[in-house]
Every structure is written in structure tokens, then in C-alpha cells.
UniProtKB/TrEMBL annotation:
The species this protein was found in: Leucobacter coleopterorum
Assigned keywords, A-Z: ATP-binding, Cell membrane, Membrane, Nucleotide-binding, Transport
Pfam families: ABC_tran
Name by which UniProt lists this protein: ABC transporter ATP-binding protein
Coiled coil: none
Superkingdom per UniProt: Bacteria
GO molecular-function terms, A-Z: ATP binding
Segments forming domain ABC transporter: 2-249
Topology term for the membrane: Peripheral membrane protein
Annotated localization: Cell membrane
Length: 263
């Protein structure tokens, strides 16, 4: 479903600020794979997601989604293939539009616009049903503006919207990092349910190693723009946080605690 072949990305090439964010990186995801991505700051995790989404153009290599070459497509052209949830709860929704208007836009992602009704009774009924599953009471607040919701509610809504049309690829970029522990747990559990029920192929960046172990069937660790460690489903089931820290220590050449890894 996702085939990344030998991609590289360098920022500010030829200057004193040159930084190699991705270096000859390859990664393949089969349909239904849920891969969690860990690594320290600057490892290239978010750059990888931005390259897949089209926000950044890679310098070399290829990206294919469901057999379609993405390299020449702009970010908005890739939208029909990709759903994405960002770290900032405010980034995935339109605050001045209502809940039902946001959901209506998500439902039409990648589709041609017409002059028909923007929202039908059937769609509104579906929205209520989908929102009720969040257990946040949002199904009773369809006319409310999204800007009035809490960060956790907006992130849950963003996640629902991202998976609404069963995208070929779901990208999650530290989507629980800005939430308090209770809301983070809610969104984590919601992530597991939406991905599982939809059979979504997912690439998730996280700094939370327990979350990385809890979610998904595969795990990769990045460092300096490269994948330096991979765990299959069987291997991932045997991993623990101390074992992950030990693997990272091999790369860094020194023993680290989780605080050092996440700093």
C-alpha cells in the first residue's frame, strides 16, 4: 500500500545550515500494516510523514501509494489518498465552521465539488452515529462551532475525520503529544479502534515508547534520517521500553534513559 524507495531530503543544501533530514530511506507497508515510528528529535520522523503527504518534495527516490507514483503530485492532489492528524489539536479542523460542516468537508475529501446540498439528512444521521462512538457527547452538538471544543475533543474529531473516507494511508504525527494524560489515553484508544475497524494502513510518529509498543503491528526506529532498527509483528510483541532504550544506546554508543531519548 505504501512503497518508499531510497528517498533523501536535505534542507538548505550548500549552506552552513545544511541538514540531511532523510538519507536513502526505504520502507514498505502492506495493506493494513500499522507502523509506529520512534526516535529522538531531529531523527527525520516528521520529515518522513511530510514527504509522504507531499508537504515536502524529496530530492531523490520514489513514493508510491497503492501502486500510484506520488512524486509529481502536490499535497492537495494526494489528499484523496491520505488522511492525517497533526500534533497540534487546532491544525486538523476549521474552528469557525460547525462540527457537521467539518465532517461534511472531510466526507468530500478528494472528490469534485458540485452544486448539490452540502449536507443531507442521511449524512447528518451518519455523523451522529460516528460521533456517538467517541463517547464525548459531540453527537448532540452538530451545530456547535469547532472552535468551542477542548483540545482533546478537537483531536478526537480530527482523527474521526481523517479516517472518515477510509484513506489509503493514515498519517499520525505525535497526535497525542499536546494532550493531557486522560485525553491522550482516550485518543490512543480511539486510534486503535478506528484503525482496526477500518483496516487502515497507518504510519504513526510518537515520542511515547509505551504507546509505540501498545499500538501497531510493526515498529521502526529512526536516527539521523535513517531507519536504524525495525521490529516485525512477532519481534515487536517481545519488546519492552528498556529493550528499545538498549537498541537506541547501541546507535548512540552510550546508555540512555527514557528522558534522554525523548529530550
Amino acid at each position: 500500500m505504501l512503497e518508499i524507495s531510497n528517498i533523501s531530503k536535505t534542507f538548505f543544501p550548500g549552506t552552513v545550515n545544511e541538514r540531511k533530514a532523510l538519507v536513502d530511506l526505504s520502507l514498505s507497508l502492506n495493506e493494513g500494516d500499522f507502523v509506529t515510528v520512534i526516535g529522538s528529535n531531529g531523527a527525520g520522523k516528521s520529515t518522513l510523514l511530510n514527504a509522504v503527504s507531499g508537504r515536502y518534495t524529496v530530492d531523490s527516490g520514489t513514493i508510491e501509494i497503492d501502486g500510484q507514483r506520488m512524486n509529481r503530485l502536490k499535497e492537495f492532489q494526494r489528499a484523496k489518498y491520505i488522511g492525517r492528524v497533526f500534533q497540534d489539536p487546532m491544525a486538523g479542523t476549521a474552528p469557525n465552521l460547525t462540527i457537521e460542516q467539518n465532517l461534511s468537508l472531510a466526507l468530500r475529501r478528494g472528490k469534485p465539488r458540485g452544486l448539490g446540498l452540502a449536507l443531507s439528512a442521511k449524512q447528518r444521521s451518519r455523523f451522529r452515529e460516528e460521533l456517538a462512538a467517541l463517547e464525548l457527547g459531540l453527537e448532540n452538538r452538530l451545530p456547535a462551532k469547532v472552535g468551542l471544543l477542548s483540545g482533546g475533543q478537537r483531536q478526537a474529531l480530527s482523527l474521526l475525520m481523517a479516517g472518515f473516507t477510509h484513506p489509503r494511508i493514515l498519517l499520525l504525527d505525535e497526535h497525542t503529544a499536546a494532550l493531557d494524560p486522560q485525553r491522550a489515553e482516550l485518543v490512543t484508544n480511539l486510534t486503535e479502534r478506528i484503525v482496526s475497524q477500518g483496516g487502515l494502513t497507518t504510519l504513526m510518529v510518537t515520542h511515547n515508547m509505551e504507546q509505540a509498543l501498545q499500538l501497531g503491528n510493526r515498529l521502526i526506529m529512526m536516527h539521523e534520517g535513517r531507519i536504524v532498527f525495525q521490529a516485525s509483528e512477532e519481534e515487536k510483541g517481545k519488546l519492552t521500553v528498556p529493550l528499545l532504550l538498549a537498541e537506541f544506546a547501541k546507535i548512540k554508543g552510550a546508555m540512555l534513559d527514557d528522558r534522554a531519548l525523548l529530550a
